[in-house]
Amino acid sequence: MRSHSGKGLAALAEEVGSCRRCPRLVAWREQVARERRAANASEEYWGRPLPGFGDPLARLLVLGLAPAAHGANRTGRMFTGDRSGDFLFAALSRAGFANQPTSTGRDDGLQLRDIWITAAVRCAPPANRPTPAERDTCLPWSVRELALLPRVQVVVCLGAFAWDAALRLTAALAGLDTPRVRPRPRFGHGAELAGEPHTLIGCYHPSQQNTFTGKLTEPMIDAVLERARELAEAQG
Fold first, then answer.
1. Domain with 30 in it: what CATH number?
2. d(CA 219, CA 128)
3. CB within 8 A of 121, min separation 6: which ones?
4. Residue 56: its H or E element
5. Please, which pLDDT band fits residue 4 given cuts at 50, 70 and 90?
6. Based on the structure, what is the number of domains in the chain?
7. Pairing of β 60-64 and β 154-158
8. Beta strands in 7-122 (DSSP E)
9. How far apart are CA 94 and CA 225, in angstroms?
10. pLDDT, tens digit, for every residue of 182-234?
């Protein structure tokens, strides 16, 4: 399974990396990569869409919002190279899902265990705000990605945007155009939605706005990850 899934995921990553379906996102990600910020002026930015990464046999999937302009859009790996990633990978390390608490670049030795990290939108958006249309344009990538991750049982949704994208993803995997659950479940930290083929869990996004103000603390994200593990183990 690992060999087959690994090859499929690698092929998908190549396709994702060449996507140009959203003109606004293409223009922004490439502008950021050209102009750069002073602190990273000497670096070569990735400047393309981001594939997911992690363990092909993962039972847990972490779904973020979108790559950060000077984080993943620079490093070429989801959540790598920004403050949100610093908070997330430290939590994954404490929970035993990562072999180290930091992630600075694609070749830093980070290895994930039983977890896969991806995002609802694969390109860095202006003001970190993708549009619903951009979310829906990216949805087929996520559908194909989940099909290549057959052991995933639980999706941890980082923020309301990811929660809504996960509802649409679940519907698409079932062959539906829109989410079938009515009324639509509301996002909340620790919210759970049991279903097939995945259970969804809500978690506040590890943005600086949330972590610096205490809206999301280390014990809070640790509890979500522990609950996700419990659910994955209970589902087999």
1. 3.40.470.10
2. 26
3. 25, 65, 66, 130, 134, 135, 138, 165
4. none
5. low
6. 1
7. parallel
8. 53-54, 60-64, 115-119
9. 10
10. 677 899 999 999 987 899 999 999 999 999 999 999 999 999 999 999 999 98
The CA–CA distances, whole Å, from 173 to 70, 132, 228, 235 equal: 32, 19, 21, 19
List the one residue out of 118, 115, 120 whose CA is nearest residue 151: 115
The residue among 25, 37, 12, 13 whose CA lies nearest residue 123 is 25
pLDDT of residue 180: 65
Whether pTM > 0.85 for this model: the answer is yes
pLDDT at 195: 82
Both tokens of residue 111? 């290895």
Which residue type occupies 206? Answer: P
Q: Is the pLDDT of residue 51 over 80?
A: yes
Distance set, CA 174 to CA 159, 196, 198 (Å): 23, 9, 11
1: pLDDT strictly greater than 50 = no
- What pLDDT score does 177 carry? 73
Range of the domain at 61: 2-235
Look up residue 52 and give its amino acid.
G
Nearest to 63 by CA among 178, 198, 235: 198
Per the DSSP assignment, residues forming a β-bridge with 119 are 64
